Amino acid sequence: MATTLIVTPPADDRKLLAPVWHTVVLILFVVSYSLIQVHFSARTETLQLRSRVPLYLFTISFELILLAYVWFLGVRRSGTRFADVIGGRWSSAADVWRDIGVAFVFWLFVIVFLAIVGHALGENPHAKKALLVMLPRGALEILLWILLSFVAGFCEEFIFRGYLQKQFFAITGINGVAIAGQALVFGVAHGYQGVKGMISITIYGALFGILAMMRKSLRPGMIQHAMQDSFAGIALSLIAKYRPDQLALFF
Predict the structure, then answer these.
(1) Counting C-beta atoms within 10 Å of the first and last residue's C-beta, which end of the chain has fewer, N or C?
(2) Residue 57, in any domain of the structure
(3) What is the mean pLDDT of residues 70-85?
(4) In this predicted model, what pLDDT tens digit does every residue of 94-145 receive, in sequence order?
C-alpha cells in the first residue's frame, strides 16, 4: 500500500523575503555605518556648515541605495511584490483618510511616550549637538529637509518594519522577537545620537513595529514617520533661531 507524504507549505507570513545571508549583510552594513558615524560624531558636532544641501542629498542617496539593496538584491528575487511588503490597500479616499487618522493618533501617542522616555533618560547632549548641525536654514534647505523626511519615512519603514521585521518573524515565528529585532537594528543605526538617543530610537522603532503588526500595513507608519521628521526639523530649526534657550527642553 503506497503512502503519500503531504508537506504543508509554510504560511505566507513565514516566508523569507530574502536569503538569511542577505539580512546578515544588511545588519553588518548598518552596524558598520553607525560605528563610522560614532567615530566622526565629535568632528561633526563642531562643524559650522555654510550649507546643509550636500548633507541632505548624501543622506537621501544613502536611504535610496539601502532600499535598492533590500529590494533588487533581496525581496524582488523571492517573487514578493513591493505592495505585499507594504501591505494594506487604498481603494478609496476613505482608506487614505483612515490611515492618516491612525497616523495622527499614533503620533500623539508617540509624543507622550517618548517624552516620558526622554525624561527618564535625562538630557542627551550628543543628540542635541548632532541635530543642531543638521537642522535646516532657509527656504531651500527646508524644502530639501521635507524631501529627506519623506524619503526616510518611506525607505526606513520599508526596510525595518517591512523587510527586517518580516524576515525576523519568518525565521523565529515570534512577533515579539521580530519587533524587538528590527527595533534594535533601527536604534543602532542612529549611533550619532549617543547611547541615550539609540535607546529612545529603539523604543520608537518598536512602537512602529507594533503599529505595522496591528494594522498589517506600513502605510500609517510611513505617514507618521515622514510628517514627524518634517515637523520636528522645521520646528526645532525655528526654535534654534528665535528661542535657542528653549532647545534644552527637547533633548
Answers:
(1) N
(2) no
(3) 96
(4) 999 999 999 999 999 999 998 999 889 988 887 777 787 888 998 999 999 9
Q: Within a domain: residue 66?
A: no
* In a domain? residue 99: yes
Distance CA 90, CA 200 (A): 32
Task: Quote the pTM value.
Answer: 0.90
Write the DSSP symbol of residue 77.
G
CA-CA-CA-CA dihedral for 98, 104, 110, 111, to nearest 10: -170
Answer yes or no: is 199 within a domain: yes
Average pLDDT for residues 168-192, to the nearest whole number? 96
Other beta carbons within 10 Å of 247 = 15
Q: Distance (Å, rounded) from C-alpha 144 to C-alpha 53?
A: 7
The CA–CA distances, whole Å, from 95 to 65, 102, 209, 219 equal: 30, 11, 21, 11
Q: Which domain holds residue 101?
A: 18-43+94-250
Q: How many domains does the chain have?
A: 1
